[in-house]
Amino acid sequence: MPRPTIYDVAAAAGVATSTVSRAFSSPNRVNARTREHIFSIAADLGYRPNPHARALLSGRHHTVAMVVSDITNPHYFELIRGAELRARASEYTLVLVNAEESPRVEYDQIQRLVPSVDGFVLGASRLPDENLVQIAGQRPVVLMSRELSRLPSVVLEHTQGCHQIVEHLASFGHQHLVYLAGPRNSWMATTRWSALKSAGEELGLRVDRIGPFTPKASHGAAAADGAIRTGATAIVAHNDLLAIGVMRRLAQRSVRVPQDVSVVGFDNIFAADLCTPGLTTLGGAHADVGRVAVDILLQATGPLQPSGASPQVALPTELVVRESTGARA
Amino acid sequence: MPRPTIYDVAAAAGVATSTVSRAFSSPNRVNARTREHIFSIAADLGYRPNPHARALLSGRHHTVAMVVSDITNPHYFELIRGAELRARASEYTLVLVNAEESPRVEYDQIQRLVPSVDGFVLGASRLPDENLVQIAGQRPVVLMSRELSRLPSVVLEHTQGCHQIVEHLASFGHQHLVYLAGPRNSWMATTRWSALKSAGEELGLRVDRIGPFTPKASHGAAAADGAIRTGATAIVAHNDLLAIGVMRRLAQRSVRVPQDVSVVGFDNIFAADLCTPGLTTLGGAHADVGRVAVDILLQATGPLQPSGASPQVALPTELVVRESTGARA
DNA sequence: AACCTGATGGCAACCCCTTGTCGTCTGTTG
DNA sequence: CAACAGACGACAAGGGGTTGCCATCAGGTT
């Protein structure tokens, strides 16, 4: 027995299909008594409007896609959770897409979804600017962990956060840092590097950079070895996963943390609190990033014409100090 | 400028819309030269078939939904990843749904998605059996981490795994274990409990159970306190998160792991390797669970009539021994 | 009582694509 | 050269719902 349609409801209620349709979509166009009658019949039949038929005409699907650069990165859990929650609150469905650190995959997946979703939330997109602009021409887009003029975005306030990191390290007397850079096409990597560098200049520290590294724990060994070669006394890794991988390698090589070298990460993932020593890291309200991003997206997909405003939101960061940083012994 | 439709392509190519449609959906019904012509025009125009219009008629959406009991549980990351990968390989879209440990939310979300997806993969569903059967009547369903006769499922082989755990603990001379149970309506909790219990009987160990506990690190404190009261020398927690929470609490209370008490978890999440001491846990190929589940689901949604076969797959587990287990000192 | 107004609901076109049916044209066969 | 088979493509009817337009009707006005 197929799902009942608006026709079945109309027949059972003795009204026209249009009346049934209006009872659901613009209730005040229909007499209250008729409406109640229709609702009760619909409930009896177990009628539910078919979202596809609806989307066909309206072009609105009540669905948004969230694309993340690497779904296995715990950092995204919170983002995903915030986004999912916000989407659900508006009865939107969240489609999750994993770009696997590949711009190609990312782009193809997005294009595949264009006809099916109302907009995109892109997390740490690895796509070049022009692609992003093009996609934004097809559907509303909100960037997370990336900024681009004329596109709305939500990021954590990294400039200030990086400054905090450098200050924190400087306070322990460190004079030479090295930044283990993230992927080449990562906006965050560029941003963090320049923020660290200028903070270093301001505070009179030398800041080197090596990389790029894929920000996973498994790439920490290569990163650690490279870092040691620079002679820096403090390592700032592109994210916590990389930092954890680095600390493992350092332990293997009997380099003590923080007595010989300090390590700092980004993201404050769950594991940062569990590893030994605990990882000092720059955290922030990641769930809020996801939430706010979807929030902005839903406004843009809303009935109002896109107002031309492209909010660029920067949420505060906080340096979570644990045991991986300290003075050299 | 709206997306080009089949009509635009037909007009530009000088053929009927049906010809364009068939060129895409049943290519051998159309002359090769005409077909190529249509394809090139379509490419020029940037035409892509509208999946909703297609779904309207065919009822197939090329979308599957994955519902997880709690999206913040790292254990699901691998499941999600495996599922996403498998879905993508068949050009299916994966919709991710978070049930937040609430049967109500889970059910509502599923019902909302019924018209939009081809099937469901349910991870550790908290729904009662009859709900699951009912949902399976509407759309194909594959269960993960739960078994129910007549429904296909993918689980990790826990009976044997639990036996391994008990053997491992027995080999250290433990004679009294306590299982910190997961949520009341969790099939896994029931399964683990009975497997641990029968393994205990077989090997001559006393096995207690306390709980239920929400399997998050934050609930570890209550669980740890309860476990201590039982006087057991080994704690088997419902999952790694709970185990980690327990170990934290034990550290607070100056109970040494493993000298005073041993701790075992389930899932082998990333963090199990990072905490101190490293957590002994029952792992398995979680990504495979997600992959196989989607695989089965796609077969069931495929053109073949559901063959009545409901594969119940059990994948192997492996006990990952770290430092949280040992003999009492 | 004649007239006006606003509320109500029906008709039918449309959203984009698929598909059963049927006509047409090409090439083949006797 | 006529007749025919087969390949191809056009027509039109949905699939489920929305919406502009119009007819109707009840209630209110003068």
From TrEMBL, chains A, B:
Keyword DNA-binding: yes
Lineage: superkingdom: Bacteria
UniProt xrefs under SMART domains: HTH_LACI
Key words of the record: DNA-binding, Repressor, Transcription, Transcription regulation
CDD domains according to UniProt: HTH_LacI, PBP1_LacI_sugar_binding-like
Boundaries of every HTH lacI-type domain copy: 4-58
GO molecular function: DNA-binding transcription factor activity; transcription cis-regulatory region binding
InterPro entries recorded: HTH_LacI, LacI/GalR-like_sensor, Lambda_DNA-bd_dom_sf, Peripla_BP_I
Protein name listed in UniProt: LacI family transcriptional regulator
Originating organism: Jiangella anatolica
